[in-house]
Structure of Response regulator:
Amino acid sequence: MTTTTPHANALKIMVIDDSSTIRRSAEIFLTQAGYQVVLAEDGFDALAKISDHHPALIFCDILMPRLDGYQTCALIKKSAKFHATPVLMLSSKDGLFDRARGAMVGSAAYLTKPFTKDSLLAAVREHTGGAGVSTQE
């Protein structure tokens, strides 16, 4: 299980993506900023881990095998325990249809890949109220 713990009181952020490169990039950016990171390879992996880790924010890729990002987001949002957790969709496509479909299943925002460290951290701050850790870089 990949969980990094830089600060005991840091916000926990889940990154769901079938690309190990994207997961690793997000993990590095978020860990350097002082967040705890939980990684999942796909929707099933994420659903198995979410109850154990209670992330404050979830980044979810759209195109994944077995259970895509829209289905994963919809299942998270249907959960009484996690319906208030912000889910931000990740996609290499930047289309209006994808954004609309993401909004329909309850995603809070949409981030286009490849993302930069600044865009990723800005999205975290925007959807967590800047809580958790110092934003000194």
Observations:
- The chain has one domain: 3-128.
- Residues 1-6 have pLDDT under 50 and may be disordered.
